[in-house]
Specification:
heterodimer; A: alpha/beta; five-stranded parallel beta sheet; 10 helices; B: alpha+beta; six-stranded antiparallel beta barrel; 20% strand
């Protein structure tokens, strides 16, 4: 699933290009250098993702072409621009502010091609992690959609055996790409079912709130504002604290002054 | 409703923490106090402090859990927690105690169950969101609604991690902290002096720096305050409370500040929970030759209420109290005396702190249920 991310560069100094290419090649990372901004944009615009390293100053009469290219790439539609890793690789520290305003992902000061190649490698590795994450998100959504529907069915039908929905909840809590609201609802539901399961009984009101929580998850992974109302309901239903594991007197055990 | 209507209950940070993390009796008592007050509120500084301490603690632990190799590998929770503790920085938000409580509580929660770092990571971050959201919800009331309130006299670019554009020459119109530090500078400095002389944790620093603080003006003063949120926090919160409101807190500083600067405010202090009992104890005063048998009425980690057939001494007298329930013999001082139907009541404050542990055979839930006396003075 994780695809190799193509790497592009732009630099006007031939010796530097050659050594950098060789150093990256040694580690099986091919880099394709483009001659100008137009060629670069043409090469990456149809790609799903790419890592791009740009020299700012491309020589006489082509000043700041790298910066212009970075700006152009970072002004692409949000979905596209998120998948492009654009770094400035320059000897000119003075471009830092402008590069930052253009929204580049990294600003790297050139030292020598061997060190720079190593620096590029770690940036590429980091970008590959981000790309993998982006690629996993729709799959995580699909998985969540299926399992939350399942959870809802289990909660409506398994009142006497809470271990089944509890197992589904714990499985979901093991997913690596959960969203903030989703985590919150899952953690609260797990706690409720866990404590009900250990008591061996769940009352109608508590079950109704748990089912509403599962509905929030099944509808849109608890992204909507309805989550806040649900937390409010939960707090009113359990004023002493939803998370009994944390609600003890340890926090109160300080002496009076 | 205006801010000056004097029927509001203001929750200071310690009250918010105890409400969300303490036993259910705290929440119930707050509910009963709410019935006496038309409105409930808190302040921008309280919110920031809560986020920094509670949000910060959960976030820090989760961050380090997320760094453990083998995120999907199942292992006993205790091994995982040990590994996390080994990676944590020496200082965590809120200090060592909340971290220890969190670890112990997670240990109870997960028990001997094997878990993955991802599961605990998701669980902690889910709870963090829940608690940060819960900060605004008090019973049926929402602090963000118009009739309640989050009072702000502290937002300023000087705080670390602020999201405002930094002021350069003078405070901007958006700066709320200037309403305390510049517009009410004499009041503010007087309250700083009060705390400097009140033998509080922050007193030493304030005493040493009082003169230099008086010499600072405008942005310079705010920058100094912004670098020391722990030192100035209580004082800022004190001035954020609307006129005539009641502050619910555990912190004695607010009592001291109120007496000197804003007598129109009311301070309701949350005290350590008492465990009621009817067991016997032995008490011996420094003045007396022999120990007397007395009735232990209730006790906490810091003191006890003892009823004797006769007065055993004067306020300030040293006494030695012995009982299995308080964990053996504890020395203390008599801090109050009163006549009761059952005899002579004495309040004893223990001299040395001891972590309270429930007596054998009495578990956590029965202890919580046993707390019947109100938690608020």
């Amino acid at each position: 699933m994780a695809t190799a991310v193509p790497v592009f560069g732009m630099d006007d100094i031939e010796d530097y290009r050659t050594t950098l290419t060789q150093e990256l090649q040694k580690r099986s990372v091919p880099i394709h250098f483009c001659r100008n901004k137009e060629e670069l944009i043409g090469a990456v615009e149809d790609l799903e993702c790419a890592s791009i390293f740009l020299d700012v100053d491309m020589g006489t009469s082509r000043r700041r072409e790298g910066l212009d290219a970075a700006l152009h790439l970072k002004q692409m539609p949000p979905k596209k621009r998120g998948a492009l890793y654009v770094a400035i690789l320059t000897s000119h520290r003075e471009y830092h502010e402008e590069a930052s305003r253009a929204g580049v992902d990294a600003f790297i000061i050139k030292t020598n091609p061997i060190t720079d190649a190593l620096e590029l490698m770690i940036r590429l590795a980091n970008h590959a992690i981000e790309v993998s994450r982006l690629q996993a998100e729709p799959i995580q959504s699909e998985l969540a959609e299926r399992e939350y529907e399942n959870l809802l069915r289990q909660m409506k039908g398994q009142r006497d055996n809470l271990l089944i929905p509890l197992g589904t909840l714990r499985r979901a809590l093991n997913w690596p790409f959960l969203e903030e609201g989703e985590r919150c609802v899952l953690a609260a539901l797990e706690e409720q079912l866990d404590s009900a399961e250990s008591r061996g009984v769940i009352d109608d009101d508590s079950l109704a709130i748990c089912i509403s929580g599962a509905e929030l998850l099944a509808t849109d992974r608890a992204r909507s504002e309805a989550r806040f109302d649900w937390i409010k309901r939960l707090r009113m239903r359990f004023p002493g604290g939803v998370f009994r594991w944390l609600s003890g007197r340890e926090f109160e055990e300080e002496s009076d002054e | 409703m205006s801010d000056t209507e004097n029927n509001g209950l203001f929750l200071e940070t310690s009250a918010q923490v105890l409400r969300l993390f303490g036993s259910s009796s705290v929440e119930r008592e707050i509910e009963s106090l709410l019935r006496l007050h038309g409105r409930v509120g808190t302040s921008a500084f309280v919110r920031s402090e809560f986020e920094a301490v509670i949000g910060g603690l959960f976030q820090t632990v989760a961050t380090y859990l997320g760094k453990i190799p083998g995120q999907d590998r199942i292992r006993p929770f205790l091994d995982l927690w040990r590994e996390t503790l080994g990676m944590l920085p020496p200082f965590t938000p809120g200090g060592p105690k909340p971290l220890a409580v969190l670890g112990a509580s997670l240990g109870v929660k997960f028990g001997s169950r094997s878990v993955t770092p991802v599961e605990v990571w998701n669980f902690l971050l889910g709870q963090k969101t829940y608690f940060l959201e819960g900060f605004f919800l008090i019973g049926s009331k929402d602090l963000r609604s118009e009739e309640n309130g989050i009072f702000d006299l502290s937002s300023c670019c000087s705080w670390r991690g602020h999201d405002q554009i930094p002021c350069t020459a003078a405070p901007s119109a958006a700066c709320r902290l200037q309403l305390i530090c510049s517009h009410r500078k004499p009041d503010f400095l007087a309250s700083v002096e009060t705390i400097a002389n009140a033998k509080r944790e922050e007193s030493d620093w304030l005493k040493e720096n009082l003169e230099s603080l008086v010499a600072l003006d405008g942005l310079l003063l705010m920058r100094e305050i912004g670098h020391k949120p722990n030192i100035f926090g209580d004082i800022i919160i004190f001035w954020e409370v609307p006129e005539g409101w009641t502050i619910l807190t555990r912190d004695l500083s607010f009592v001291v500040l109120r007496e000197r600067h804003r007598p129109s405010l009311h301070v309701c202090r949350i005290r350590a929970p008492r465990t009621p009992t009817s067991g016997n104890c032995m008490i011996r005063s420094a003045r007396a030759e022999v120990a007397l048998t007395a009735q232990l009425s209730n006790y906490s980690s810091s003191g006890a209420c003892v009823i004797c057939s006769l007065p055993i001494g004067e306020i300030g007298d040293e006494v030695m109290l012995s009982s299995a329930e308080i964990g053996g013999s504890r020395s203390g001082k008599v801090v109050w005396k009163s006549a009761t139907v059952a005899g002579s009541g004495h309040g004893v404050r223990f001299v040395a702190k001891r972590t309270h542990r429930p007596p054998k055979g009495q578990n956590e839930s029965t202890r919580s249920k046993a707390t019947q006396r109100p938690l608020f003075d």
